Amino acid sequence: MHLIRKLERSVHSALVFVTGAITVAIACVLLLQVVSRMIFKYPFAWPEELAGFLFTWLIFLGASVAYRSGSMIGIDWLVQMLPTRARAVINTLTSLLMIMLLMFLVWKGVETTLKSANSQTTVLRFSWAWVYAAFPVGFSFLLASITLDFLANPKSANTGILEDESGR
């Protein structure tokens, strides 16, 4: 399990870098659009479409990053008031439901991506499959993280926070 956690940390670091790069790319593309429209009075057609596609990837890859860093929104005040045993049952059931839901979403995401392979985007004219692929890819990373948490400690999963080498 130690090797798997080390691999997961590496993947998490890569996802943090990629989501940061996507954020910078979105800002640059939108800045280009503003400059072309306001200064040169000649707006390009493609920056808004590209920014939307990049934002889609940012959302779905960012979900895994947010989970891993403990930044996902959770309303757990009621669960925290429960006895320890009931809390463990709720956490286990929640993890299992999340795993099943994400498996379904990955499957449907792959299905949708394959169906959209022959249709092209309006302005940039590339396959919609490149956009729709964000769904199964992002959900797969999230599924892997939640599943690893659950396997490591089924009764207290759902935190998403990576521990460092010392176990903290």
Summarize the topology.
Elements: H1 2-38, H2 46-68, H3 77-80, H4 84-115, H5 129-132, H6 134-152
Describe the 3D structure.
InterPro entries: DctQ (IPR055348), TRAP_DctQ (IPR007387). Residues 26-148 form the Tripartite ATP-independent periplasmic transporters DctQ component domain. The chain crosses the membrane at residues 12-35, 50-67, 88-107, 127-152. The structure is a single chain. With 168 residues, this protein is mostly helical. It has one domain. The protein has helices spanning 2-38, 46-68, 77-80, 84-115, 129-132, 134-152. The longest helix is centred in the first third of the chain and has 37 residues, at 2-38. It is elongated, with a radius of gyration of 20 Å. The mean pLDDT is 90.
Summed up, what is this model?
By secondary structure, the protein is mainly alpha-helical.
Shape: elongated
Classify the helix fraction into a percent range.
over 70%
The H-and-E topology, N to C, reads as HHHHHH
Q: What's the tally of helices?
A: 6
Unreliable stretches: none
Number of strand elements: 0
Q: What multimeric state do the chains show? A: single chain
Nearest-angstrom radius of gyration? 20 Å
> Whole-number average pLDDT?
90
| DSSP strand content | under 5%
- Indicate the structural class: mainly alpha
N- to C-terminal separation?
16 Å
Could you describe the largest sheet, including whether it forms a barrel? none
Total domain units = 1
